[in-house]
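hey can u check if this looks right to u? its 379 residues, i copy pasted from the old doc so theres a chance i mangled smth
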Amino acid sequence: MTDLGTEFGVEVDRQGYSNVHVFLGVVEVAASDGDEGWTSKMRLTGGESVRVERDKQRVVVKGTVQSSDFVRAIPYVDPRAYAKTVLADGPLFYWTFDEPAGPAIEQVRHLAPQALFPQGGAGRCTHAVIQSGLALGRAADFSKAAGCFSAWEMQQGEMPGAWAIEFWMQLTGDLGGYTRQYLLNAGGPGWGRWNNPAIIFDVGEAGGADNELELFSQHGRTTDGPRLSDDKWHHVILVFFGDGEKLGVAPRVDIIVDGQSMTVNRGNCSSPFQLNGQLFVGASGDRFQEPFKEPLCGRLDELAFYDLSNRTVQEIETQVAAMARRHVAAARTKTQPGPFARDDSATLSSASKLPDQTEATTKNTKGEHPVGTAVEHPV
């Protein structure tokens, strides 16, 4: 039985019969008849159940079982509730990473050039499985191997005024010393126009501060940013007010972490937000030097870009502070059990698993389990 991102439960009774129930997604259940091939096959969608049992020497799929026999061990999370909160604040771009696999689809325009495709070791994890406590569905996962999510031609132009970048992040590794991990790198058209802008972590001068979150540009980087040295999930909004000359309304950069705002040392960091070229999430994207150079050791989720041009400093401060409060509250809302759960003792629990994992839990280990497979299909 193979799980490709859906949620399902499996029960094996003392007679060796199997009950399968699908909570979310689409699953194909096939019963094997030894060397003679598949004898029976059925496709199930969310809310449907089926029983697999032996009829003399044949293994067949027949009838349905009561969905109330199953209960979610992991609470049901509807990530659309958080997404609606973000979309209500008018982002220019927004990626949720909630797809089971494949590219992350941009949620404002849904255009193909702005989809972020996984490369290398980039994958996804489920917040319920890693027990983050956040009602956010799935997240981009860079914790196992170097990789990135990338788009090669964003085809949007640039944000020449004030702008903001919002995301959730979790750090799972620290390279230490004078190193940097790229959370994001935006570039203009043509190869080599990087850091317009970029977000980096774990940058420290030799013998100086470490574990800092900073904004990076071709003209310089910020310093004295917030220090993160734990493996907790953090909500971040990075706000570029401008450079006091050609861009924005003030020479200022704020970084808000979990609702706490700080103005960092801007230095020479200044950049319009280039959205007409490449965008890399989870690594620098400089493949000429080495694959997935300076990768992130961690996870990212709910990435959003905001155009804050034509606003005063006070208007920007008010808007981003309100966004931080609303979005943190929405992500930490207590999740409720799914529609097929019940409060009394149940026979089996379903689980949300990573795309490459397998779920085959039983309430009783006695008895032989019929051979069968369950494969998710695109909806």
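Residues 335-379 have pLDDT under 50 and may be disordered.
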